[in-house]
Amino acid sequence: MRIYKKKKKEVINIKDCRRLGFVGDVDFDMKTGCMVALIVPGPGCICGFLGREKEYVIPFCDICQVGSDIILVDVKEKEVTEKI
Prior knowledge:
By secondary structure, the chain is mainly beta. The longest helix has 4 residues, at 3-6. The protein is built from one helix and eight strands; from the N terminus they run H-E-E-E-E-E-E-E-E. The radius of gyration is 13 Å and the shape is globular. It has a single domain, classed as SH3 type barrels. It has one helix at 3-6; strands at residues 10-13, 18-22, 25-28, 35-41, 55-59, 63-66, 70-73, 81-83.
């Protein structure tokens, strides 16, 4: 599967059935060329005018299944790394 096709997929956490958003970027290990994490932009601030509050960095090991239109991940809210 190509990277640009992953960006069209919605990420859903199976722990609480919450929508995290759509894939914004993918993190790679430069030495091995392997995908390390999915980066999902968080919800916008004040109708999206002032940018985003945070972004979720979901490790590759937490991805359960990649479907035709969604990606299921198994993470606890506290375990998801949030970058500000």
